[in-house]
Each structure stands twice: as C-alpha cells, then as structure tokens.
Amino acid sequence: MDTIFTRGPSLTSRLVLATVLSVLLIVLDGKLDTFSNVRVYLNSLVSPLQYMANLPGEVLNQTSRALTTQRQLLENNAQLTRQNILMSEQLQRFEVLRQENDRLRTLLGSPVRADARKMVAELMAVDNNPYSHQIVINKGTLQGVYEGQPVLDDKGIVGQVMQVGTTTSRVLLIADVTHAVPVRVLRNNVRMVASGSGQLNRLVINHVPHSTDIQRGDMLVSSGLGQVFPEGYPVGRITDVIRDESRPFAIIRAEPAAQLDRLKYLLLLWPADAPQAPIDQDEAVNES
Amino acid sequence: MSLSLRHYTIAISLLVAQMLQIMPMPILVDPYRPDWVLLVLGYWTLALPQRVNVGVAFLNGLVLDILLGTALGIHSLALSLVVFILAANYQRLRNYSVWQQAFMIGLLAALYHLVIFWLQHLLTDIYFLFDYLWPVLTTMLFWPWSFMILRKARRQLKVS
Predict the structure, then answer these.
(1) Lowest-confidence pick of A48-62, A110-124, A188-202
(2) How many interchain CB pairs under 8 A, A with B?
(3) Which of A49, A173, A242, B48 is the right S-S partner for A251, CB 3.0 to 4.6 Å?
(4) Is Metal-binding one of the keywords (chain A) (predicted)?
(5) Do B50 and A26 touch (CB under 8 A)?
(6) Which residue among A19, A127, A198 places its CB closest to the CB of B77?
(7) Domains in chain A and their CATH numbers?
C-alpha cells in the first residue's frame, strides 16, 4: 500500500511548513497589509465561485418574479406611482432649496457642493464569517469601483468598499467593530464618531461627555470629516442615552439608518474628489 | 467521461463544499451552517490520506480566506492543523463507528473554530459569543450523511 510516508516530505514537516507559511501570511496580510494589490487578482480568481454560489438564490428570485400575478403587479404599480408623485413633489421643493443654498454659499464664499455620481449595485453571497460584517457586491474595478468608496442603500450609509476585484468587491459595513463613521447630530451639529459594535442593529458613540446635548431619537448624519463619506447622508438614530455619572463618559447607542440585515440593492457613490470615475457609462446615473 | 470524472471527484467535491460555505442563507439558518469544507476535507483525509492531507488543506484554507474576506492564512492554518490530526490518526479513526467519528469531527470542528477565533482576536478586538460555536454541533450532525454520500461517490467512481 502506498502510505503517506513514502512520498515527499513527512506529515509533520508538512504541518510545520503550512504553519510557518500561514503565520507569515497572517502577519504580512493582517498586520502589515502588504497584499492589497495581490488581493485584486485573488478576488477576481475566486469570483466565478461566488457567482455560482449566488446562482440558486438568483434562480429562485427569477421564478418568483415570473410567477407574480397580474393583480400583484397592478397593486405594486399603483403603489409605486403614488410614491413617485409624492417624491417628485418633494424634489420640486428640493431643487429650489438647492439653488438657494448654492447662491447663499457663493455669497459666503464657501465652495458649492458638487454632486456625486452613482451606480446601482446588487448584493451577492453574504459571507458567513461571524467575526466581521462584510458583504460582497457585483461591481468591481471594471466598473470603476475603488478601495474606500462609500456605499449607501435607500435609507442611509451602509459601509465602505474594503477590497476590490475585477467583477466583485467586498464592502465593510458600518456595524463592524473595526469601522467608525464621523457623524454630526442633525438637530444641533454636535460632532462625534459612531463606531460599529459587531451587532448589525447597533452603533456605539464613545467619548461623549455627560453634558453634551443629545437625546433619544436624534438623527445622526455623516459629517464628511473623514474624507470617505460625503457630508449629509443619514447614518443612524440615537436609541439609548445613559448618563451614569460614575462613568467618565455617557453611554450612547444608535441604530443604523440603513437596514443592514436586509440589503439587496445598493448605491455606489463617486464623490467629486474620487480617485476614479465610474466606467460603465450607461449604468452610471449622472445627476444633473 | 467516467475516467475524467474519476480524476476530478475530489476537486469537484471540494469546490462544491466551498460554494456551500459561501452560499447566501436566510438569517435564521445562517448561524447553524456546518463547516462544509472541513467535512469534505475530513472525509478525503480519512479515506485517501496519501492524496489529501496538509497541503490540500492549506490551499483550501487560502481559498476560504479569500472567499470569506479574512486575513490570508487564518483558515489555512486552522484547516492544516485539523487535517494533520486526522491524517496522523487515520487508521484508528477508520475503525470507529460513524457516530464515534462524528464526535471526533465535532471536537476537531471546535478546535478549528477556536483557532480561527483566537487568530482573529490577535488581529482585531472581537468578543466571543456562544453563537460562534453552533457550527460545531451541525458539523457533527452532518458528518454521517456527508460520509455516506462521499463514500458512495468514491466507491462508484473507484477513486483511489
């Protein structure tokens, strides 16, 4: 019988080799982050696997779409039309306000805010690595996605692009423990930093003195200070303010505005100073 | 056809395992997802230790690292370690009944998750939740079935 010991190095030396290589990789990739360029190729290499894993869910979606009845479609259509009318009414007012704001800003001598270009992306296989909150989307360098790009959904900020591949990219959610967003309170412009807690439905705000004017229900919007997220997008809503005087700071928790547990369609933003431009022009929505 | 299938059975089963590992699942079922790659690798290590051992485990761990977005080397180290233990004791483990094997696989899955948690803990400050250990139980329960399916595939296709 052909035993393992007759071929090549022994089992123990293989383990030693694998361990040394792994530890080397962990230090180089995890601590020193030397692999960010190689990661693009590695991610592109495994993306067929991700597309294949995504296939059954996609097929299920398609069939359920094909099976929707005409009545459901009509109802859906009526609801969307209603929503559209309401939104376009808001948009009319918004347009006037925007122009007024631009004029005031030019009067004050501060730069007029530029519009960001956008592209719709779709969620792919949600990874199950329980230690960090990440998602994979179906756009990559071929569409002009870059590292550190802000990602939103229809309710608010979702996260930022962490790794890119040619056709897929990985997004780190704002609820991850390693993520933090600079925010301000919409009501009174108090600035703070909202960090992820590791739970999808909670953000924590650290180092806020007891005397700070902040209450339950306050809206947090991005302050634009970190140079990653553009200013003024909703991040979350304050859920708890605990002022325990025996602690140095108040305990403040918030709930993310984006529905991080039921993401499907996402919006990629290219701010005016982005290092790259969206590439697929017919998919990129250019706001006038 | 059967000849080519025979040659690629191990590779195909591992690919399927990787796919199952990242397939999107409803949020209710997701925490209970068994470690498919560990199950399939474990079977082939016990069945054909001269073909599948630490090297294959290391490479599969790397693919898993890329797919799951962890730092490179974390899953490869954990998988190499577990497969080493299996390959070193394959003759003893083969004589166990399937349920005894399942128990051992459960223990190894617990080791696998603890090694991954520990390595991740070194890189970022994460806290341990008991939920992280649910896959140990499901991996244990899935072992007999995956064992039977893979043994059937191995015998019918005469993989050796």
Answers:
(1) A110-124
(2) 143
(3) A242
(4) no
(5) no
(6) A19
(7) 180-256 (2.40.10.350)
